[in-house]
């Protein structure tokens, strides 16, 4: 065997061993989270996927479903310094980014000192993000994309890693400002937090209303999470999975030649290249969370809705008919993978 082949084999074995080690720690992290955030395994998986990919997540759910509890638990388990911002109509950009203040020294000299805002952390919870004005919402755009902010003409780096977990209430829309498409596209995934079933709700009652509340414990450190993010990018992806991602994303664009008639008649605007990048990353993350060494077509289908649904828009006629993007995405995916695969992944 040639020396380069020996090195390649050794490198592959090392990669497999490192992936398996991260998968074991992820299992511990998930177990710790689900002891406090009971019964919402899919929500936990999607949130962990966003962190593994180095991205941000938008959680959509009614009040009282545990979104804040989830973010607080994640901060502890993943070893991240977290901050929380309650978005309100009177919130200003400086309340998020920070500002410069003029200070007078003992000798009478004056100088500006920067007071960092809550965005300078590693895990930021933006609670009810759509209640702030568009000007304030836009203060997060640079932070989410470039991991830095510009205040008083100076670029300031944020924490490493940096993640935003934003929440929205889907029913109370009075006095809110819908997020623009450019900002929605910054979120890696959109996570629907739904009502628990009866058995899960019973477990929640028993675990949260007693004398002792389950405590989360640290499993990862910030440095270990960064290493896991780098390792995720080295996970191999088969050619068939890559082609399925491209087919699925391009089929959701109404002006693409490969788009089916249903999309042309229903969709006003479709996902861009960032959606394909997000789908590639999240399929790897799903495989890693499930203890596998490479993603499959089932992973692509399972991640299609959380990755694509907030990157598409229905036209007026489709909204009038009561069409849903989730149903349309499932229909498109089924056309590529068959009814059996669609049902398994759903």
From TrEMBL:
Could you tell me the keywords of this UniProt record?
ATP-binding, Nucleotide-binding
Domain spans labelled AAA+ ATPase: 53-197
- Cytoplasm among keywords: no
- Xref: Pfam families: AAA_3, AAA_lid_2
Q: Which InterPro entries match?
A: AAA+_ATPase (IPR003593), ATPase_AAA-3 (IPR011703), CbbQ/NirQ/NorQ/GpvN (IPR050764), ChlI/MoxR_AAA_lid (IPR041628), P-loop_NTPase (IPR027417)
Alphabetically, the GO molecular function entries are: ATP binding; ATP hydrolysis activity
Family assignment from sequence similarity:
Belongs to the MoxR family.
Task: Kindly provide the name given to this protein in its UniProt entry.
Answer: MoxR family ATPase
Q: Which organism does this sequence originate in? A: Pseudooceanicola antarcticus
